[in-house]
Write a structure and sequence with these properties.
Blueprint lengths: L1 H7 L17 H8 L5 E6 L5 H15 L8 E5 L2 H21 L5 H11 L6 E3 H11 L1 H4 L6 E2 L2 H22 L5 H6 L4 H8 L14 H33 L7 H17 L5 H7 L15 H20 L4 H31 L2 E2 L1 H13 L4 H6 L6 E4 L7 H10 L8 E5 L13 H13 L3 E6 L1 E6 H14 L20 E4 L9 E6 L8 H21 L3 E4 L4 E4 L5 E5 L5 H10 L4 E3 L4 H4 L1 H14 L4 H9 L7 H7 L8 H6 L10 H18 L5 H12 L1 H6 L4 H18 L4 H14 L14 E5 H4 L4 E6 L13 E4 L3 E4 L15 H26 L2 E10 L1 E2 L5 E2 L5 H8 L13 E3 L8 E4 L48 E3 H11 L3 H16 L18 H14 L9 H14 L5 H19 L2 H7 L3 E12 L2 E12 L5 E7 L8 H4 L4 H15 L4 E6 L8 E3 L1 H10 L2 H10 L2 H9 L1
Parallel strand pairs: 1-7, 1-8, 2-3, 2-6, 4-5, 6-7, 9-10, 11-20, 11-24, 14-16, 14-17, 15-16, 17-20, 25-27, 28-29
Antiparallel strand pairs: 12-13, 18-19, 21-22, 23-24, 26-27, 27-28, 29-30
Length: 1202
Amino acid sequence: MYALLRISSTVPPRHQQEGRMMRYTDEQAYAVYTPDAKNLVVVAGAGSGKTHVLVSRFLYLLEKNADWPLNAIVAITFTKKAAAEMRDRVRAGLEARYFAEVADSAEARRWAGLLAGMDSARIDTIHGLCGDLLRTNAAEAGIDPGFAILDEIDAALLLDDVIDDVILRAIENGDDGGAMVALLETYTEKAIRDVLAETRLHAVDLPEADAEALVAAWREHFEQSARATMTRTLQRIDALAQETAIPTGCKRGQTLRDLRAMADAISAGEPPDYQIDAMTRFDLRGGSKKQWASDETFNEAKHIIEDARDWARANTFDTAQEAEAARLVIYWSQVIATVRDAYRAAKQQAAALDFDDLERLTRELLTTAGASAVSRYRGREIKHLMVDEFQDTNADQWAIVRALADLDAPETLFVVGDPKQSIYAFRGADVSVFGAVCAAISDSDAGCEASLSRSFRTHRPLVQTFNHLFGALLRRDDESEASAYQVTLGVPMSAQRDQPPSDAPCVEMLLIGEETDEENAETRRRWEADEIASRIHALVAERRLIYDREADATRPVQYGDFAILFRGMTRVSLYEAVFKARGLPFITLSGRGYYDRQEVWDLQNALAAIYNPADDLALSAALRSPLFTLSDEALFALRTGDSPTRLWEAMQSPSAERLPAADRPRLAFAVATLRGLRGMAGRVTIAELLRELLARTGYMATLSALPDGVQRRANVEKLIEKAEKSGRVTLSDFLRYLAQMSDKEAREGEAPTLSEGTVNIMTVHASKGLEFPVVVLADASHTGRGTASDVVYDARYGLGCKVPPPPDDEKADKTRYIYSRIQALEKERETAENLRLLYVAATRAQDLLIVSGQAKLSKNGGFSAGGSTWLARLIEAFALADRIAPDAAPQLLDVWPDVPPLRVHMPVGRTAHAEIGAAGSFAWPDVSGAEPTAPPLTAPILADGASAHASAHHLAATHIADLGSIRHTPPHERRFYRDRIRRRVLYDAPNNIRTVSQQRDGRQQGRYIGQIVHEALRHWHLPKHTGAGQLERILTAYAWRHGITDAAQAAGIVSACHDLLERFERSKTYHALENARQVYREMPFIYKRDDYIIHGVIDVVYQTAAGDWVVADYKTGVVRGGDYRRHARRYHLQLGIYASALAAQLGEEPSALVHYIRGGKDQPVTISREAWREALADTPLDENIRAALAGDDDHTQETSAR
């Protein structure tokens, strides 16, 4: 066997270095061999060969400890890709060691045995390790060992469903003691949902104290902060007084003396409110420089006063206002806890864990007092633990590592990372943990810290530039509360390559100025893209030399050597349009771009139209796309004249004389194709449905003929791949999955294609771990504006919340102390991470770094990028503000003595290519003197807001039901229904589409049961009319159609539906229908009232034996308290619309009823003609729709009282 292995095995060339003795630097040698056998934390700079060191140490430990099995060493990586690479490298090293031994010797057999066990080696991500530990110790952890792991999107979808249920239960049943209702009175439903979807809040310590105790705690924080701040202010004033006497006859000097007296009082413990209020009114004007020792001391006095004033304005404390915030915090705490518990229960019922669960449960498993798992693993089964990218861990992960590795025992732990490259806070990474770990290991007798500071990536001049630059940018303010999240440069890097491949500057700045006042940021970004393309073309044309690591030689640069990195991909399409126009070959590898690609939209729209033909927007987009190629004239013809309300209906009976001749066969083909695919939906997989759509339409062939055809085809194939991998079995669920993927921006890139020589476009996050000869940091003036959450958290301050301003004063300052303090801390942390992100971006460059962005002329005459953007920081660090000017030729500017000059270019004369993506080559006509008129097919837009309800011209029956609920629900519930009707009408937003249920999930059963019972009643599938076996098969088929594929869950739902249908057979409604002269079920209607077109479907219309007509509506919800008659009042308006629509056709007014399927013997609830007439009379649609869309609670309450 071993001889065969020797003949057939080869070591991959790229991993051969792991298979032979390498020459290490002194730092690397210490990290690999650690002569004193200590636990080691290694701070590894960018490009320092840390992965090689990690693998070499893994192999060395196996060499040193001949009795260790392979699984005695556990290696944890940050990503699955990194785990796979490390596994490959370790395998290559084992093979090399096997081949180095004499055939069939004891050592050869040992290495062969280790090699044979590589498939089960413990080289995995932290979540992979947690999963293994939990499955092995499932009984002790109290979980199902067969648990599924929810990825980020699946977890978000499940959580959305939980939030839906919690909100509905709280409104209908008051399950949370009124907390949700109180929040709905203050915040919008969307704001509440956004907060509850933040899973990080599920893991924090939620306050259980009352509001008064919270205010007292906040007050203590406030006073402590004031004393600390004023102590520092006193120190600054005293330091200034050492340099100069504070003048007495100067306004600024007197203000400084007043400030000192106030700071003394606060530092001594006096309540700070009076002094802080006085500080907010400090006037910085006035004062005489002549009375001060120097301009510097005069200006320093101003800075001290200004800082104190700004601090005071941001740190006021009003006890009454804080009490309001505390009350809301308690409500938020209760609701968050409710959602957290419901989410955990849903996961438990589905036998599933998300990533947070994996960490939390593993930490509990290993750190609970007396945990047997620790003694079983630490020092026994696990001899040595290695952790890569440790800067991106968090407290839970460190607790797991610490439990598995004994810090007091030698050579049990090896961690490597670089705090300067910690850029994943949005995934829960906490850079402060790295500092704490360094201290914990270094302070232990069995541990120490080491560095890897030799760059094998970058040449000396660029390394020295980075040392200067980031030595200036990466600073720690020890007085800041966020200091633990700030990092410094640390040990400066040195370079393995001494000489650059070219004598040209290794750092270039490409600055886009303002040529005219009318230019906007979008125009300047296009100009910037044009200049980037020109520079790349020029570098390739001039054959700029770069270093080729594979060949260990220099060569001319090629397009494939460039990477264009973006901080965010929101505006990347602007750059892509210009790059295409300039003939720059590129591929977008990461970012938001994938879900914005037209070909992806085409297929999503087609799927949406197949799922719901009534979705006019999706249907028209699909028809207009290359799938069916209908013209705009055809779409216009289908939507004008006497065409039906819905586009799908118009397509099936088009007006031949209005439809262009060329479009008639295309329309017939579209109808046949969509009808056929709709018939297949639910019977084939989503991937098969997509392939059938592509086959029938020839879409792939069409894409091949378009620009970027190869890329477009690859993107379509990627969508099919996602359909296969998603595990979704229903159209609704897959569409919801795609929507969630797009909303969450899962850093999805375009499908990679096998084209050589293309510029790589990606986010900085996606470039982590990569390197390129030339890196372009584009849009470096991007501000990265974020939206503050309504609820924030900090371990020191606890939970804080924003208090919305009152409706009558939107500009009122409702910021509260604790919220503003936490927000300020978060801003400091974000600023620190943005600087680390800049470090990661810049250090991807091997030979040349180009930074581009927009610079503006500042008030003092110099140039800046404004704010704290990357470009602003760089201009400040390089001291360029007063040294740059627009010029057709680049400038070479010296910055530091031991580095090459910068190449700085601020071009003038924007080229025509800068307009690409806006209007292309189209020239807008001069209409400056023309009278503005509306296009012939549209009406003028009213300026007075009188048509704010225009989007509500077409109303669905569900809108009317919400309108009735606004009138007949308690005040605290009205906001929920008002927000829902606003969302449905103004934004045409549907209800959440429920996820497919492949696991047992009892939360959704009530909703599924209601939908299935409705469907059975529609077709009159009842126990007395359908055989028991046949009815069970029908109900099971309905369950499958709704996405319920778990057999046990489906059986439970079918049984519940059967019981409800039997109950219905005992009701008065059933007997009335059985004896009716005529019965019409699921009757669609369109009815015009008060300038509105109302459409919907009536559950059932029947004529009694006595000849009277009745409209009936089924309800399957549970009514709190069982007062069905009172509850039915909210449906009087809806049933009145139904009755009026029927009366218009029959010439006589019907009576109405609401039948609650889950109700008792008092069903149905009859609504007399007088009652529904009164509802219609009291609720003028125009007036009430306006009020609902405007959020007018006063009007709603007034109408409700009438």
